[in-house]
Amino acid sequence: QVQLIESGGGLVQAEGSLRLSCAASGATFSTAAMGWFRQAPGKEREFIATIWWNGGNTYYADSIKGRFTISKDNAKNTVYLQMNSLKPEDTAVYYCAVALYWSPHAPLPRREVDYGSWGQGTQVTVSS
Asked: What pLDDT was estimated at residue 49?
């Protein structure tokens, strides 16, 4: 079955940077869209960014545009989230997810229900 393992979270001061990684296995991901979500305490899970595996098209949430960048390394089956200029409000558990059979002719997925498999999450804490 599909396995997604996030890493790279931790404690960082405001204005600092982190790079999260999501290592994917257990499926062919050439048909997939990969996404990042986050969930802060007391809040619903929030869409962050997504990338099309074949071609690299991306879509970002307005809340993080200009600060976060999603990228991928096809050879390593890994998706990254580079987070710069971090703010305390970015504190959350960050989750990687995959929509295995997403059509390249459809808009990139940005809803939780669009994704079929999820990682366990990695904690990001931004201190002031």
From this structure: 98
